[in-house]
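PROTEIN FOLDING TASK:
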Amino acid sequence: MVLVTGATGFLGSHLVCQLLANEQIVRACRRKHSDSKEFNFIFEHYFSEPSVQTAMQKNLQWVETDVLDLDTLGAAMKDIEWVYHCAALVSFEAKDRELLMQVNVEGTANVVNLCLLNGVKNLCYVSSIASLGRTKSGATMNEDSKWENSKLNSNYAISKYRAELEVWRGSEEGLEIVMVNPGVIIGVGDFKKGSNALIHSMYSGMPMYSMGVNGYVDVKDVASAMLKLVQSNIRNRRFVLVGANMRFRELFFMIADGFNKRRPFIKVTPILAAISWRVVWVMRLFSKKGLAITRETARAAINESYYDATRIQTELGFAFTPIQETVQDCCTAYIKFINKPI
């Protein structure tokens, strides 16, 4: 039996579905007040037939717990062979710094410690390319890139880097671990939040684009890579998961074309990016809505960050889904999404 933290999240939902499809018995963690709508949407995407859904659900056990609740999390690890740790907070708002450190760092330390305490020998941890840190614009990073303290590192990046240190500590204390560092994850899910909000924005006619570069990966590939690494003999390694390095303009145009919508036509310059986050910050003072643009996301929009995923391709023979195929899947699924909102 395997345990998945963050099972109602975007990646966690895909992972659970792939585990079930591979005839695994899954104990899935959700917080007491978690919304399961995104999981249900993704579950139905994988298993459309009611009879198949019923069969899959027989191997799925839900438990209410939290990575900050030692008692319930420890109890959930009973009879577990592998823990897939997907639970994390993603935020680029300055006000969430303390919460990021609590959930991502302390929560990961709890997972590691409870694995060791409960005799769980194996941990698959989902980190991020953010934990590789920021280098000068245009540089290429991989698994061997060294973290450098910099004002360019977001609070989220710092939290994921520190969480990785907890996982490596666990490996020194006897845990067999594998770690993945995905790029910006896109795929079928809730298209109004997280990185998938790009799909919704393009459908709604977002007019702006930037020339920044980032690494992207299909959510199905991240879940598949995790399964393949666990099934392999590879241990105590980490792997960058990036299927394509693309300019925001190129990705935005691709999504707009997938919807037969007008392509974005306003180029975001460094000056415009700097102005935009400040304007949105002022607007935030008069609204309860979260920031769509922050200082950190504005900076990322113009930075050129490249990532090399050769290691998993050579050591595991892994092949990434072409980004064009991912975008087309998203565009097709989005139409179902807006017709049946979650």
In short: The longest helix spans residues 97-117.
